[in-house]
Amino acid sequence: MIDMKKLRVLFVIDKIGFLEILSIPTLSAVTKRAGHQVELVEFGRNEAEALRKVESYAPDVVAYSLCSNEIDRYMDINARIKSRVSCFSVFGGPHPTFFPELIKRNHVDSICRGEGDRAFPGLLERLGSDSMWETPNFLFKLSDGGVRENPPGDLIGDLDELPFPDRDLVYSKNRFLAASPIKSFFAGRGCPFKCTYCFNHAYHELYKGKGHVVRTKSVPYVIDEIRSVAKKYTLSFVKFQDDVFGVKKSWLEEFAETYPREIGLPFLCYARPNMVTQNYARYLKNAGCYSVCMAIESGNETIRRDVLNRRMTDERIIEASSCLKNEGIRLYIINMVGLPMETEEDMIRTVDLNRRAGADFADASIFQPYPGTQITNMAKEMGLLDDGKETFESQFTTSVLNFEPEFKAKVETIHRLFSIMVDHPWVQKVYPALSKIALLKPVLNVLYRFYYGINLHSRIYAGKIPLSLRLKGSLSLLFSRNRT
Q1: Whether pLDDT at 465 is above 90
Q2: Yes or no: is domain 180-479 CATH 3.20.20.70?
């Protein structure tokens, strides 16, 4: 019989890596606040040791947060755990939210769609009772093989009511993240835009009538959270991971006045080209912004408009870049290659546009057709993706679209050399020949990761990472499938 007053909750992650995650720490914080015991097990480093820890902890609930390209790995981990201990499994994150059919997979007891800040503690409170089956946001697998699906509850209107993320849970397991002077924060949630390759358009539909998707924490809350981390851990550079930063002008004005006085650390944030004006850039500069990450995605205006639903001209992108550069803010531009309707010439146009925009560092990923997105349906209609296909790759490895082998090889080669081609135009002349030499693939992969690791930190981040941590991070980067 489960003790309803205090449950043993176990969060399971494959590999923590060197890129900070805040989903599990956020859920851990609300779970602890509800009075439950929490532990984290990293499974991928040593599976035998991880299973021993699971058995010793004897969790009542095992919880996972996963993306689409991780699904098969986590299904295997969950099966191993369920064979050792009697527990209730919960799956959350982007993939379960937009691919609820996951509930039909073996050993999946429930999935949480959307935000879990209220839903997950609500489930724990009801676990084992008849009311459990009515928990908002959750789908449950029934004993007869059926499925019980509940609609999502209202979105949290005031993000200040949430506790700070439980970073100790992760930092205690990962020396690199604990000691790194670069740490991540969210000043808010949600994105007002609806790009076809992103989950946001489906997220807006999921929460229609349930509150505002775009919400911002108060400036004092953000300041207090950063200060609380700085008191306990090394911190010299802040990364704001919001989809778009400073959407509300009044909030940005207050932030630009308060942050440099109370925190005063250089930071990176994300911005969309069509929201960047000279005034916006000036507010960021006054706040102490060191670098901005901005997505171009494609150098073909038609593809941006008709395939990606990013309605912005080349001139607007260059103007936004100039606004930031005029304020002395460094520019990190991200892109995609291997898009539906894209040609080899289009990918080179993307390289050229990054150069024209004055990118201090340019990066690219390989398009992946994630479930629940409009562009995935488009790819199927074009015959580029088999209907029902549920296999995904890392956006840093290869494309799963039905491209001709020669074109797919060029997609992969341009991806590996993208940053180098932006910096050194002469490389564009030799990449076609390189794409034909299969034996060069592992060499290009190492070169790409090395170039990324060295230049991203030296050009975009102001935080100085100790040599020992840099070496550890570099090794992880070189041999990680997901570049994490």
Answers
A1: no
A2: yes
